[in-house]
């Protein structure tokens, strides 16, 4: 038996998809239960806050059932839902914390040497992630966690790619500093 | 290509997010549109019934009855949701029941079984 598609890659029966588009609640429930883990996971990575992730997931699914008629092919639904999930979270952050600094000074490459082993052993990864603000966390999660390129993140956030690369490097430097301090304290 | 540090970060972060996301409780009832008031539903039912009667009567008056059409059943391979075998089987059952037009009680019973399997407690027990 082949590998079962998971996350946003789950396949939806065309009949269920059509019934959900027509507004049949039981079919919509299948859509909800199928994609709920993927939506919550992506939102949890972006928000780092369980309550907020749950509230945004509610928004995402309400929008989904309102707009899913825009999706022509059932196979395209997972990708469409992923985009909707990420855009919903980014829109929330824009309202909460508008971005002002588009002209950041150039920063040097992070000297993040031999941190992988320390990172693997780190007990409190939550504290590490907390070092980043909402915007930095979104960029790092989209790049590291969701596999987006800097160019794609730039398009999603309406920011120049060079700025995204700088902000990503800055975020890594922050994490590196925190890890260095932790390492220093423990040794 | 991601560096070794980025890969380590990715691994730790994924694990953390998986653990956290599994504990978030979000029920279908929080998403589903609220049912309409009974009076409103009755009004719609009465209108629909009147329309059906009118159309049937007119059709009967004007044309000979057409042969009954067989109901198309589209039973494509249902999706598989997770590695959990019982959950996968249950998802198949739900979709098949839905496609075969099962009654609400049957569907509710299947959804209840699924909720038990996917509750945070059940997920933690399988980890």
**First and last CA, distance of chain B:** 31 Å
The CATH architecture of the largest domain in chain A: Orthogonal Bundle
Structural class of chain B: mainly alpha
Global Rg of chain B: 24 Å
Let me know the average pLDDT of chain B. 75
Question: What coarse outline of chain A follows from CA principal-axis ratios?
Answer: elongated
Assembly of the depicted chains: heterodimer
- Beta-strand residue fraction of chain B: under 5%
Layout of helices and strands:
The complex is a heterodimer of chains A (187) and B (127).
Chain A: H1 14-21, H2 25-47, H3 50-67, H4 77-96, H5 116-121, H6 125-129, H7 134-145, H8 150-157, H9 161-186
Helix pairs in contact in A: 1-2, 2-3, 2-4, 3-4, 7-9, 8-9
Chain B: H1 4-22, H2 38-62, H3 85-99, H4 104-118, H5 120-126
Helix pairs in contact in B: 3-4
Describe the structure.
Chain A has 187 residues and is mainly alpha-helical. Chain A folds into 2 domains: 90 residues, RNA polymerase sigma factor, region 2, helix turn helix motif (Rna Polymerase Sigma Factor, Chain: A, Orthogonal Bundle), CATH 1.10.1740; 71 residues, Arc Repressor Mutant, subunit A, CATH 1.10.10.10. Chain A is 67% helix and 0% strand. Chain A is built from 9 helices and no strands. In chain A, helix 2 crosses helix 4. The radius of gyration of chain A is 19 Å and the shape is elongated. The mean pLDDT of chain A is 86. With 127 residues, chain B is mainly alpha-helical. Helix content of chain B is 64%, strand content 0%. Chain B is built from 5 helices and no strands. In chain B, helix 3 packs antiparallel against helix 4. The longest helix of chain B is centred in the middle third of the chain and has 25 residues. About 10% of the residues of chain B have low confidence. At the A-B interface, helix 1, helix 2, helix 3, helix 5 and helix 6 of A face helix 1, helix 3 and helix 4 of B.
């Amino acid at each position: 038996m082949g590998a079962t598609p998971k996350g946003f890659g789950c396949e939806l029966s065309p009949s269920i998809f059509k019934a959900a588009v027509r507004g049949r609640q039981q079919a919509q429930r299948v859509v909800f239960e199928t994609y709920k883990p993927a939506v919550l996971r992506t939102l949890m990575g972006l928000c780092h806050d369980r309550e907020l992730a749950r509230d945004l997931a509610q928004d995402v699914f309400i929008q989904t059932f309102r707009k899913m008629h825009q999706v022509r092919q059932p196979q395209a639904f997972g990708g469409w839902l992923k985009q909707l999930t990420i855009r919903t979270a980014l829109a929330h952050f824009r309202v909460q914390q508008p971005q002002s600094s588009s002209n950041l000074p150039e920063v040097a490459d992070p000297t993040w040497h031999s941190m992988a082993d320390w990172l693997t052993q780190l007990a409190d990864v939550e504290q590490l992630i907390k070092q980043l603000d909402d915007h930095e966390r979104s960029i790092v999660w989209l790049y590291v966690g969701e596999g987006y390129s800097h160019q794609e993140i730039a398009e999603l956030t309406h920011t120049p790619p060079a700025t995204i690369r700088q902000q990503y490097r800055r975020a890594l430097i922050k994490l590196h500093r925190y890890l260095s301090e932790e390492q220093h304290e423990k040794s | 290509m991601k560096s070794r540090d980025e890969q380590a970060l990715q691994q730790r972060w994924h694990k953390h997010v998986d653990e956290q996301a599994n504990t978030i409780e979000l029920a279908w009832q929080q998403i589903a549109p609220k049912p309409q008031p009974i009076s409103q539903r009755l009004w719609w039912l009465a209108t629909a019934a009147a329309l059906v009667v009118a159309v049937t009567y007119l059709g009967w008056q004007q044309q000979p009855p057409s042969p009954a059409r067989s109901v198309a059943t589209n039973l494509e391979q249902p999706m598989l949701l997770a590695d959990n075998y019982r959950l996968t089987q249950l998802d198949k059952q739900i979709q098949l029941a839905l496609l075969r037009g099962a009654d609400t009680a049957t569907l509710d019973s299947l959804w209840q079984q699924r909720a038990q399997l996917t509750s945070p407690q059940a997920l933690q027990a399988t980890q």
